[in-house]
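Internal QA ticket QA-208
Title: Verify multi-chain structure generation after dependency bump
Assignee: T.L.

Test input:
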Amino acid sequence: MTFATTSSSDAALRAALRGRRFEAVVIGGSAGGVDALVTLLPALPAGYRLPVICILHMPADRESRLAELFDERLPLPVREAADKEEIVPGIVYFAAPGYHLSVERDRTFSLSCEPPVHFARPAIDVLMESGADAYGAGLVGILLTGANHDGADGMAHIRARGGFTVVQDPADAQVETMPEAAIERSQPNLILPLARIHALLPMLEMNES
Amino acid sequence: MKKTTHHLPSDVDIELRMLIEAVYLKYNYDFRDYTGSSQKRRVLAAMRAMACDTISALQARVMHDPAAFTQLLQFLTIPVTEMFRDPDYYLAVRRLIVPFLKTYPSLNVWVAGCSTGEEVYSLAILLHEEGLLERTQMYATDINPDSLEAARRGVMPLDKMRRYTENYQKAGGTRAFSDYYTAAYGGALFDRALVDRVTFADHSLATDNVFAETHFISCRNVMIYFNRRLQNRVLGLFHESLCHRGFLGLGSKESIDFSTYAQRFEPLAKRERVFRKVAS
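Actual output:
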């Protein structure tokens, strides 16, 4: 299957973002997701104006070292999202393995042991749907490489709430299943290869009002 | 400046609040201080499963039909747990709490929010292996009568036994896990002697009070469904119930840092979430 990658010059990306003002970014990925984030997250400058919430499917039994790993590499603080913690701009959060991660209306995190969704806990759908309820048009959803259908409903929900969605070009993804499923479920605002999502990230914090 | 509208409640949010209020007024189950996002997911799941088009329609049914409320209650409470979940927790209990418990002639242990009993049987096995079960009075409480009944029966799905056996071994189990159950009733029936001295009781952390002085309270992945106000109430109950220097065990991602009781408990094992009441 082929999908048309959106025109992705810097000017085209800026045009797509015109009139938008964002409050948070959610990035979801599964198989190949760690590599994708290693490429993507260094695009975030120190003092970034938005919170960035990352969620990858990981085995529940292992203590995740993702937050530590990225904390050493990035110029902005990275930590695992904790239950009832206030979501603070300029921090990169990772979902803990074994629990669903949600965003509450008061912009705090909550964890839950509800059953897995698409065999995944944390599930990208759960985070994105709750994030869309909390942030509405202020949320950016980015969906990367992966081998299942998690995230498709979440991305659709973000769009329905007026948020902005970006799917990694399936041709560019290590595993195309997840981005393909999301694109089939609802047309995203942008379909971009990883290198262009990298260019997009710093633009998201520009104040357009 | 453009006014943002995301603080205006949607229809679903309004209906959800009305349902939760109705459940409280009619059935005296208080879910008003439960975490919003997870409650919404579960009510929407109940709505679909009970073939209602809207939450308001679900509310009408629940108001006029107690059986429908019982059905809804299964969604509002979360019976998702496993035996020896997070084996490191049970290792920490064995190594750090049990030596103190052995100094008491008799023990009260409270499993708060015991759901379908997985944690109760896990702790009973641990206490048995440490020679403490015979002098322990255990209280296992929950708000869901169906869950309590399942906990009392002690029949677990057979297909879970492989996973539970692994957990048990990692948790420092000293025998063969299969010694504790027999295949019966289409599942694994756990040894009745394990729960001889367990009192299963209906108790709400949201509305009920302390009922006994306890030496150790285990309350795992219950408070994550509560907002900060209710978390505070519950930690207050635990603080009141625990004896001088008593022990508290929480779920592996739960925190007391955000609570007003943060200074009243000291971490005994930070990562395993084992705490001890600070001397007053």
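Spot checks passed. The longest helix of chain B spans residues 11-27.
Status: verified.
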